[in-house]
Structures are given as structure tokens and as C-alpha cells.
Write a structure and sequence with these properties.
The structure is a single chain. Helix 5 links the parallel strand 4 and strand 5. The chain has 7 helices and 7 strands, in the order ααβαβαββαβαββα. The chain has a 7-stranded mixed beta sheet with strand order 3-2-1-4-5-7-6, with helices on both faces. The chain is α/β, with parallel strands linked by helices and 277 residues long. The longest helix has 16 residues. The chain is globular.
Amino acid sequence: MRQVDLRKAVNAVSDVVQNRPKPLREFDQIHMKTGDMVMQSEIVAEWASGKRLAFIGDGDAVSVCVAYLRERGIFDFGPTKITVFDFDERTVQAVKRFADQERLDNLDAELYNCLNAFPDMTKYDCFYTNPPWGASNNGESVNVFIQRGFEAIQYEGDGMIVIADDDQLPWPKQVLANVQTYASKQGFYVSRMQRKLHEYHLDDAPDLKSCNLFVSALPGNSAKFVPSQAVTDPEKLRNFYGQSKEPRVLFVREKKRPDYGKAPEDEYRLELLEAEE
């Protein structure tokens, strides 16, 4: 079994966490806790080692952790190519800035809304997604992200899907069932599942966890690959980001700041020492 220096790994992931933008709850963005990000990064890096990996959304910045931990020599394994597709320009630019600063040549990001046709015809070997969990739409929002993952790998290869996993609540079970049914219809089977693995900074449900659901293509499944199309079905769009939260935003745009990485002035004020007479 490979040995990873935990202290170095945690410190490296903290560099990434410092760089990522704050989550927007109106789009169901919720950040994974740092300790779980370290564990998840190792799982992803080993699973996708030597492969081309597409991230369909990545507010957590697991993609950056995977590339950075490999570059720092903390991992001696990892993907050969990582591309992040995200509709939040803050995430895209944060990935690009970090990759440029740390010379992560195998890491890139592209501004993309998953409701549009998938733009990249480069074939990836595997995909990763931690999508809106679909509590209010039986997982249809999850399936949209998965569809783009399938298109990224052109319906052959593997995927890792991060979704809610809770034995006490009914909706995570319904979502898991719906997602597995959808994947099966697309020619993928569940090859592995790591249950109740991650915790989140989630005020209204602090105990809610998520799992890693691994899917793999059946032999000959590439025949299902067809040109990508936009998602327009109202049933898929209803409650996409939560109850009564249909998609109305094409992109989240970043407001450029020359002091990126520092606290903006509207977050604090200075109380000065009394001047000596």
C-alpha cells in the first residue's frame, strides 16, 4: 500500500482551499471539509492514475488538489491530463491562476454550463462530478451532469459520482436509485461504491454525508455516443438547484480584482489607534 505523508498532504490541500472561491448556496454549491478533501484527492488520483480525467463542475477544487499533490511529490500517481468544466468563472479562473502559479501543466479549466451541448471533442478516459444532489427533483440534476460525463468519455470508460448518502433520509435513497437506473440505461453499471465518506460545511444538515459511486461502461458501449445537445426538457430543469430553483443563469461571472487572494475591503474595517497629542 502506498504511504502518503499526511501532514504534507493536509498543508498542500490547505493551499488549494485558500485559493478556491466561496460557495454560492443558490446553486447548491457546498464545500467538502478539508480532511475529507485530502482523502478524496488520494482516491481520485489513484483511480485515475495515468488517465485523462474530466471534471464536470468542481467547486470543491479536488481537481487542483489532485494535480498539486502530484506536482509536490506527495503522490507518485495521478492523471496525465485534468480539465475542469464549470459554469462559475470564479472557479475556472481560480484553477487557471493556481495552475499557472504552481506550473501545473496538466491542469486546465473551461467555462461551460452543463445545460449546453458539451463543447470538447477530446476523448477523456474517465470523469468526476459532484453535482447538485437533486433532493427536490429525484436526482434529475445529477443525471444531467452524468450525461455530460458520459459524453466526455464518449460512452466508454469510467466515472466517479459524488452524491448524498444517508440511511435516515428517504430522498438520498431515491436519488441513488434513479441515478443507477439512468446509468444502466446508458450502458453503465455500478462497479463500486464507497458509502458515507464525506462531510460538508452545511449549516442546515451538518450530518449529511456523501458517497463515491463508481460506474463503468459495458463492452461495446461507445456505439451509444451521439453528438451532444442542449438540455431543454422542463422535467429535467424543474427544481434543478433545489425547491423552485430552476436554472436562470448561464454563467457566474467573476468580478476582476487586482488583489485576488486577499480579503476584499467590504469584509472588514480598520479601527485606528488614537493619535498621540
